[in-house]
Structure formats: C-alpha cells, structure tokens
Amino acid sequence: MEEWAAWAGLAPRTLSRRFVLETGLTFSAWRRRCLLLRSVEMLIAGESVTAVAIDLGYETVSSFIELFRRQFGTTPGRYLKRSSG
Predict the structure, then answer these.
(1) Domains in the chain, please, with CATH?
(2) In three state form, how does the secondary structure of 14-35 look?
C-alpha cells in the first residue's frame, strides 16, 4: 500500500480510504481476492496445490487451503474435480 501511495502521490491513509470508497474492499481484502483468483488460474493450468500456495506467498499449504475453502466453499482439490467433471 505504501508503494502504491507513493506512486500516486498520496498519503497511505488517504489511499486506503479512497481504495475502500472505490472498490468497497480494504486493500488487504482486495489483494486476498486477487491471489485467490490467481490460484484458481494456476490450479486449472495444472499446478499442484503446494506449488500454488508457495508461489503466491502463503505461509503454509494448510493456511492456503483453509482460506480457499472459506472463499469458495470447498478445498482446491474438490474445486478442481467439480470444474473438470
């Protein structure tokens, strides 16, 4: 957020408030959604759950799986089986 604020010539707090006004999401919520959408692309392309979790910077594979399950209502493995079936 600080890098984006500097690029935009704004204070980080100003950018944070404007970000919520424009998107309806906090920066961290927006970033999390972007990462999860990217994870779906990577999984569909054949990447393993472990590789996706590591590549996207999650601390552990289990934390990635739990976040994915909370967002999509299923685990990454089940999600793939449903989408390919």
Answers:
(1) 2-84 (1.10.10.60)
(2) HHHHHHHHHHCCCHHHHHHHHH
Cβ contact 64:58 at 8 Å = yes
User: CB atoms < 10 A from the CB of 38, how many?
Assistant: 13
pTM of the full predicted structure? 0.80
- Tens digit of each residue's pLDDT (9 = 90 or more) over 18-43: 999 999 999 999 999 999 999 999 99
What 3-state DSSP class applies to 85?
Answer: coil
Q: What is the pLDDT of residue 82?
A: 81
Distance CA 29, CA 27 (A): 6
pLDDT at 85: 60
